[in-house]
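Handoff note, outgoing to incoming analyst
You'll be picking up this chain. Sequence as last confirmed:
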Amino acid sequence: YGLACYEDGGLLVDGILLRLSYDCFWYAQADGDFYSWARAHAVGYDVNITDPKIFISQVQGPNALKVLEAASDDGMPDPFGYFALARVNFGWQEVVVTRTGYTNELGWRYYTESQHDAERLWTHLKKAGEPFGIEIFGLDSMHIRRIEAGILNAGPDFNHMTTPYDVGLGIFIDQDKGDFIGKTALANVSRTARLTGILCQAQPHIGAEIRINGQAIGKVTADAISPYLKQGIGIALMNKSCYAFDTVVMIGCVDGEFHEGSLAELPLYDKRGGIQRGKLVEFPKYSSL
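Most recent structure output, in case you need it:
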């Protein structure tokens, strides 16, 4: 996992760095122009920056590794621990897979390249996953889990005006390593996070204010209804870092009204990350609201 910052310490994007060979790397990211950033900073280095035009999909959930084992022509790759990379054959198509995801569930990603037959690849995975209840879901389902887990989205949750410390990513800044872009600026900024989770009986509205005594103290950057927690959830960026978890606030919601809620520590549950590591195998049942 790696961050890209501007010279002033502002965040551009976060992503996963994959090492495919001694001198070949992929940087897997969502929103944010990392390609242009990397090209601009490549001047003077013996490096070639290209866009491989790869599409990333993911298989997430308690049976994800069983699906991988069934789909792979050679069985489960070994080793394949958390954040590992492997090459596997799915129906005679060699595919890069990683033990990563956007949900904090047990799972893995696969990377579809230009030479792959994408339709045949998915048909193969679907057939292998049918005994385990595999289904196709879009971003909305991942969005709920990533909020519960405190996984951030470039753009809404952080941008060039926020530093890694502002949004709780300071743990990934190593001021003891060699020079990196933004190092000098980040040595002189506040290291206290302003980002927090929020809980509310209604669904928060992205961009809405969070208030105390009628005064705006922050804004909602992500919102959803959690079937597991049976309430509205979200992520918020506060104007200052002085607010404690469990502070009672008023939150702007999708119905146009302000509802009482509270600030909450992220992740909202599974604080030790046992689910994505396969150490917590009992998973919550779906409950309708």
